[in-house]
């Protein structure tokens, strides 16, 4: 038997009481709602250090990305509509090959007004792209913004790869000597393009 199995067996032997999941319905009834989910999302995204931009209907997303990030040389995206991408991350076998990615353009599934979070379902083979790219552009349908996490959890799916994550603004930590460090665990810059 492996050490992992030994540990799991010990936990099973020591666990005598089984607890049912709590009823979250009372908490859902107290959850925050907003008169304008889109405006709240926009406001909170700025508060967490990110940026939300409304793309005009006549504006081309590829032209917008090139204008917003003129210095980006390695642009990753597997979205068919993103023609400004210089490579498709699905074509890479080793996630280490993603190192040096200036910008990744990805698809957001759900936006959350209360915290500026965007549910990212793994749509690419190598999920490291979400965290290794220096900058992220998340495309999000403004009609897919919900009030709170209670509403979001009811809608999330982990898709084909069985992985998803919420991203809310750029990566940041203040664990090191209480100094704010941007990009420690992910992108230094996050822009949500509301379409």
TrEMBL record:
Annotated Pfam families: LUD_dom
Species name: Phocaeicola vulgatus str. 3775 SL
User: Record's superkingdom?
Assistant: Bacteria
Q: Where is the LUD domain?
A: 97-195
Q: Which Gene3D superfamilies match?
A: NagB/RpiA/CoA transferase-like (3.40.50.10420)
Protein's name in the database: LUD domain-containing protein
């Amino acid at each position: 038997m492996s050490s992992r199995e030994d540990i799991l067996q010990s936990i099973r032997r020591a666990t005598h009481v089984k607890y049912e999941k709590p009823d979250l319905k009372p908490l859902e009834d107290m959850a925050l709602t907003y008169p304008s989910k889109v405006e709240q999302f926009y406001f909170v995204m700025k508060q967490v250090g990110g940026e939300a931009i409304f793309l005009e209907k006549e504006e081309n997303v590829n032209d917008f990305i090139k204008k917003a990030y003129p210095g980006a040389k390695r642009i990753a995206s597997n979205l068919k509509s993103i023609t400004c991408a210089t490579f498709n991350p699905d074509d890479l076998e080793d996630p280490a090959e993603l190192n040096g990615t200036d910008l990744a353009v990805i698809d957001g599934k759900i936006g959350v007004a209360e915290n500026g979070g965007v549910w990212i379902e793994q749509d690419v083979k190598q999920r490291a792209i979400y965290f290794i790219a220096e900058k992220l552009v998340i495309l999000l349908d403004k009609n897919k913004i919900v009030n709170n996490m209670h509403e979001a959890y009811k809608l999330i799916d982990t898709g084909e790869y069985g992985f998803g994550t919420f991203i809310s603004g750029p990566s940041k930590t203040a664990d090191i000597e209480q100094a704010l460090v941007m990009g420690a665990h992910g992108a230094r810059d996050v822009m949500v393009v509301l379409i």
